[in-house]
Design a protein that fits this description.
The protein is of the alpha/beta class and 465 residues long. It is built from 20 helices and eleven strands. The protein folds into three domains: 73 residues, no CATH class; 322 residues, TIM Barrel; 43 residues, no CATH class.
Amino acid sequence: MPKVAGSIKELLAALDGIAKIEGDRLVVVDEDGLRTRGIYDLAWTATFSEDDATVEAARWLVWEASQAVGARSASIQELYNARARGDYEGMTVPAINLRAQTFDMARIILETAKKNDSAAVIFELARSEQTYTFQRVFEFATSILAGAVAAGWKGPVFIQGDHYQFNMKKYQADAEKMTEEIRKACRDAIAAGYRNIDIDSSTLVDLALPTIDAQQHENYARAAELTALIRTLEVDGVTISVGGEIGEVGKKNSTPDELKAYLDGYRKALDADAKGAVGLSKVSVATGTSHGGVPLPGGGVADVALDFGVITELSEVARTYGLSGVVQHGASTLPDEMFHKFPATGCAEIHLATGFQNALFEHPAFPAELHKAIEEWVFANCQDERKEGQTDIQFVYSGRKKAIGPFKRQLWDLATKDAILASQAAKVDFLFKQLGTPGSRAIVEKFVKPVEYHKPMPEALKAAR
């Protein structure tokens, strides 16, 4: 098992003969040793060490290792600009929310991408997921980049902040305070190395207002304000990809008029804040799905009446505004036979989360005793979230994601994880093929040029060298 360093000196000792610090840079001496041994110790230390200075050092070392080997955090903006121009079609980019086993999942996803000659895949985490998975932005970015190094990945690594979402009740109580929460989330994500952020102010839409523009006003005004802020935070010359959202997933389906009102209002508001600034690259819409799926009383997930016509129509509208198309949320629990339909609709991006979580918890190799412990934790800690009429099966299905943080170390250290990860890799391979990403490396590398960017070395690491 990987070692968790308790001090910076112990951490540096683990890299002896693999990498060394020269001046303010990390020099990789043995790339194979870094990929197969050193990066594991760095990832586990960055995630589980109890010494704050050692965690900070491990995060810096992973970032610099990713720069050294060419697995660099990147923005998908230029690829999506190419889609808007019609330079490619027939591909929907998967954006995968990694709630558990983040390092290993990033590794197997990129190993699978290599086998498919693909580079079109996004790693993301929603703001809400940060809380219950115990993964703040600096940790998440580190785990993804460490996984890329372990995969022997060369090329762009797309890390995305998903659903940087406004809470309507908080907004009504204090709009400025709620907005500042999202501003801070954007600042933190960009400082951590994220180059893609989805702003979800769709929760502020008020369908009771008399006009569509009025209904969407708070949504587009806040999205524009935050885009303007993000443009001021671009320190490495890279245009961060920003996504918007017009319809809260799980509510009524979005319409062309709503999308037009949102995009027209957004452009005017953005020009008022930062005239001529680069706007959105994509917009999420509601098409009939719901996050996590709807659990059935006896197990399984209910069928979804997903409207592919909405995706096609709204993607066409989005591209007339210079966007790549629309984004499909809540898709990972859909039937397998649906996924091949997305590229034909012009869907730019599809978000996949709960399906991978389910594949972990429900895998035959998942330890029965850990499964029981997680169920007991849900019953003990999530009763306040139990909905009236839910069966125990539905309750555990809905609540077990909240156990991912408390059981994070056990999930990373599973003795049976190789069998589980093999199944996850097979699912990823299937999704890549259905979504049209195999062979996409050439088109991605044509438009996306990751920038080498170095972060200041932590003072504690300087002192310990």
